[in-house]
Amino acid sequence: MYAALWRVLPGPLWLRIVLVLVLLALVLLALSTWVFPWVDSIVNNQEVTVESP
After folding, report:
1. CA distances from 25 to 48, 50, 53 (A)
2. Is the distance from CB of 19 to CB of 9 less than 8 angstroms?
3. Which of 5, 42, 44, 45 is most buried, taking the most CB atoms under 10 A from its CB?
4. Residue partners of 20: CB distance under 8 A and separation at least 6
5. What pLDDT score was predicted for residue 18?
């Protein structure tokens, strides 16, 4: 999958590296902005199974 993505990206090597870094930053931004808060609202963090000493 990563090789296919690498072949699809246009330009020379330095441009491909920049594009991969920008795409990775966008994915991390989307995860931290929308996905992780949504999952946190679903998971009930009040019911823990580890007891405090």
Report:
1. 32, 34, 40
2. yes
3. 5
4. 9
5. 95
Residues 36 and 40: their CA atoms lie apart, in Å, by 6
Q: Provide the CA 5 distance to its chain's centre, in angstroms.
A: 16
Report whether 39 contacts 33 (CB < 8 A).
no
CA 9/CA 22 separation, integer angstroms? 12
Q: Which tens digits make up the pLDDT trace of 10-38? A: 999 999 999 999 999 999 999 999 999 99
Other CB atoms within 10 Å distance of the CB of residue 40: 10
